[in-house]
Amino acid sequence: MVMITYVEPNGGRQEIDVPEGWSLMQGAMSNGVDGMEAECGGSCACATCHCYIDEAALARIPPAADNEAAMLENVVAERRPNSRLACQVKATAALEGILVELPAAQS
User: The 2Fe-2S ferredoxin-type domain covers which part of the protein (predicted)?
Assistant: First the structure.
């Protein structure tokens, strides 16, 4: 399990043990995190699992693949250098303790 702290749009925080190999989206959806829509269910086809990854952790995850980078062009909330699609980031031991912030709007 990997402890991930999700910061909801209202500022509330949920610390969740996410199984290794699950996406950050799966961890949020399985635990009722507010602000995660994930309309496509993790297919990288909708950009409604947009999140902001703790900038200190960006070097510990693979860069966005071309299909994710293309979908990030469609996010509703501000796109930032640390914007990612939660469906494309897998929980690994290297991400233990990171913050994942959800924007105010997904769609």
Answer: 2-106
